[in-house]
Structure formats: C-alpha cells, structure tokens
Specification:
Blueprint: H1 6-27, H2 80-88, H3 103-117, E1 121-123, E2 138-140, H4 149-160, H5 167-175, H6 191-201, E3 208-211, E4 216-219, H7 225-239, H8 252-263, H9 267-270, H10 276-290, H11 294-300, H12 305-316
Antiparallel strand pairs: 1-2, 3-4
C-alpha cells in the first residue's frame, strides 16, 4: 500500500509527465495533443471544443469606398469633390468660370456627402419633433481617418464641435459664411486649390501660372482628358441610355454627383456637348430628380439621407 502523501503527488506528476511529453513530441515536429489543464491556442489544433478563443478583430469603419467603375477599373479613384471640380474646370485655361460663385459651397457639400458614403457621419434619427431633413443634426459615426486631408480635417471639426449642427449649418461653417466669430475656426481654407493638387498627384491636372493685369494666378490645366471624358460619358449615359426613371434605383455616388453638379452650377456645362434633343431629354430628367420630394426620397432610399439633405440645403438657399 502506497503512503498517503503519494496520492496527492500523482496528479502533479502526471501533468509534468504529459508536459514533458508535449515538449519532446513538439521538438520532433509531430502534432501535439492538448492538455485539459493547458488548452491550445493554435489554429491547427485538433482538440474540440476549444476552451480559449481569440477575440475577433474590430471591423473597419471605412466600408463605403468609391465603387469600381465598370468602364475602366484601372482609372484613378476620385472623390466627389475632385469630380465636381473636374467638371467645372476649363480644360486649357485650368480654372473655373469667374462668374461661378456656387462651386465653393458645392465642394463643401461634397465633403459631407463623401463622409456619409464612407460611413463617418449620419443624420440623427427621425423623431416626431424633427421630421425635416434640415432640422436633423449631423452625428459623428466614426472618427477613423479616411486618408484624405480635407475629409479628415472636417471630421476633426465635427468631433470638436461643442454643439451638433445641421447639414445646412455645416456647409455655411465650412465655407466661412457665418456671423458667429467663435465658429470661424471651422472654415476650410483653400479647398479648391487642395482638391486640384490631389488631381495633379493623380496625373489628371498639371500646374501652371497665368498673368492678369493686376495679379498672377496659379492654374491647373487638364493634361489627361481621358478621365474627364470618362466622367462626362458616365454622367450623360446615366441620364440617357442608363436612365432608371427612379432616383431610388440610381447608384448613390452617381445621385450625389448629379446633386452636387447642380448645386455647383456645372451641370449644364457637363451636358453641353449633347445634341439638342438629347440635351432637352437629359435636363428634363434632371429636373425630375431635383424636384422630387427630398423628405420622401430620403426616407425610402437607403443611405441617401445626407445626399437629399444637401440638396434641400441648396434649394433653400
């Protein structure tokens, strides 16, 4: 009969023996069964069930990236601000029309829509007291960086704001059109030039300088017209050959581009190359979209609330 104290050492000796066996077998390159007292965390372990599981990684916030263009998958990805500016630029001169005073707020509206499509901001939920799009505040959904300087700067402004603001108010703040001196810090400066530099880096524009009587101005002529022609063709085809007849069935980025081109006063120029009959048909369909009930379309169109809110803000202005 074994001594009484040996019974307390048996489990400990068995564990030590099994652990030494594991080390010897592992050194020989063979599979090692797991011990119940030391569950395995290896992905190839044959033990079931697993006692310990690795926590799942957080899902990235940036889910709404620009969709691939079916016409040219190798084309550079452009933000909505870059597309609007490209539509408004004069090809050889390298600057938009001097009479266009809508491009600046249009670019700011494009920033808000781009942030919404990338899952960074959204409107506060619909309530009995706040039913209208222009009454609902912009909420920060994710502060994860986007990789775009203008978008990230706007995210920081929204995050640092002490009070929540509506879409229309944010467009005014980002443009600098506010009477509140304490909110001038939210103004985005040199937006047009910074967007143009992004197009220069992508090889679409080049940088030049033109002298006028009293001043010199930096210009950005188009050096590669392929991207602008592709953009014009996509916009025109969406209103002619690929017309869906229902804004809810349109691609969200295409709907946003249509709204922003109208708000920035560059839409007629984009459609100016069409024949008379095609131009009249395209403009008639544009009016159908722009005159639609924004509240109803936002309620029934998934993920389009900020787009229709931007349109409502410009229609109200």
């Amino acid at each position: 009969m074994s001594p009484w104290w040996l019974r307390f050492l048996v489990p400990f000796l068995e564990v030590q023996s099994s652990e030494s066996t594991r080390h010897r077998v592992a050194a020989a390159g063979q599979s090692v069964p797991c011990s119940p007292l030391r569950p395995c965390s290896e992905s190839g372990c044959c033990c079931t069930p697993h006692f310990w599981t690795e926590p799942e990684e957080d899902v990235a916030a940036d889910r709404e990236l620009p969709d691939d263009d079916s016409d040219n998958s190798k084309a550079p990805r452009l933000t909505l601000m870059e597309e609007v500016l490209l539509l408004g630029l004069q090809d050889k001169e390298g600057y938009p029309s001097f009479w266009n005073d809508c491009l600046s707020p249009g670019l700011r509206g494009g920033i808000l829509i781009e942030l919404a499509l990338r899952g960074r901001i959204h409107l506060e939920p619909l309530t009995a007291r706040k039913k209208r799009l222009l009454d609902r505040k912009v909420l920060l959904k994710s502060a994860a960086p986007t990789g775009d300087v203008l978008l990230d700067e706007t995210l920081r402004h929204i995050k640092a704001s002490e009070s929540m603001e509506t879409v229309q108010t944010w467009i005014e703040l980002l443009t600098g059109e506010t009477w509140n001196p304490f909110k001038l810090q939210y103004q985005l400066r040199n937006v047009r030039e910074r967007v143009a530099k992004g197009l220069v880096e992508k090889g679409i524009l080049t940088t030049g300088k033109q002298s006028f009587l009293l001043f010199d101005m930096t210009t950005h002529p188009i050096c590669d017209t392929t991207e602008k022609q592709r953009l014009l063709r996509k916009l025109q085809d969406s209103l002619l050959e690929r017309w869906t007849g229902d804004p809810r069935r349109m691609d969200r980025r295409l709907l946003a581009l249509l709204v922003l081109a109208h708000a920035s006063d560059v839409l007629e120029k984009a459609l100016g190359g069409l024949e008379d009959t095609q131009y009249e048909m395209a403009m008639s369909r544009v009016r159908d979209v722009l005159e639609a009930d924004a509240e109803l379309e936002a309620a029934q169109g998934k993920g389009t609330e900020v787009i229709w809110a931007v349109l409502a803000a410009f229609n109200r202005a």
